[in-house]
Design goal:
This protein has 171 residues and is of the alpha+beta class. It contains one helix and eight strands. It has one helix at residues 116-156, and strands spanning 18-25, 30-32, 47-53, 57-60, 68-70, 76-78, 87-93, 96-106. A hairpin with a 5-residue loop joins β5 (68-70) and β6. The radius of gyration is 29 Å and the shape is flat. This is Ig-like domain-containing protein. InterPro entries: Ig-like_dom, Ig-like_dom_sf, Ig-like_fold, Ig_sub. It comes from Cherax quadricarinatus (Australian red claw crayfish). Residues 151-160 have a biased composition (Polar residues).
Length: 171
């Protein structure tokens, strides 16, 4: 067990920090959690996120709705991930790292079409799937309307105070 009572040795317990590795696909949005539970309330300025990338080096994340969103529990959502978003993300409270993520972006698994024929095939597949969705939606709406009509007809032939259904015309 190591203890640094004076706080003079930064990173002494770096091995104790929760570190997670994530492989994400290009264009995906990811959530990085930073669950900090302390007996005192934490102000938003106490929690910061930092990114270490090959291109930009180390920098503090600035929240903006098109790219970086802070969650209510001090987590970070990275929108529309691309190659520049790869690297290490640290959630810090004050100057201390609370948790760390190493993000790898797999740009090859889900890359944009490069040739016109590839684009046309993807577009055609998408249109086909969309047509199937529209047909399924129309079928569902038609069945819902039939059920509503049956309920209306059965409610017209009965009275709310009826205890049993009349099966004989002589009753």
């Amino acid at each position: 067990l190591l203890q640094d009572v004076t706080g003079s040795t930064p990173g002494l317990c770096d091995a104790c920090i929760a570190k997670k590795k994530m492989v994400v696909t290009w264009g995906q949005s990811i959530h990085l959690g930073c669950a900090v539970k302390l007996p005192r309330p934490i102000s938003l300025k106490d929690i910061t996120w930092h990114h270490y990338s090959k291109d930009k080096g180390k920098y503090q994340i600035r929240y903006r709705p098109d790219k970086y969103i802070e969650t209510s529990e001090h987590g970070l959502v990275v929108m529309n991930v691309n190659e520049a978003d790869a690297g290490r993300y640290d959630c810090k409270m004050g100057g201390d790292i609370v948790c760390s993520y190493n993000i790898t972006v797999d740009a090859h698994r889900c890359s944009a079409p490069a040739r016109t024929n590839d684009f046309q095939k993807v577009y055609s597949d998408w249109c086909h799937e969309f047509e199937k969705y529209k047909l399924a939606m129309k079928t569902w709406e038609r069945k819902q309307a039939q059920c509503a009509n049956r309920n209306n007809i059965s409610q017209q032939n009965s009275h709310p105070n009826d205890i049993y259904a009349r099966s004989s015309p002589f009753v």
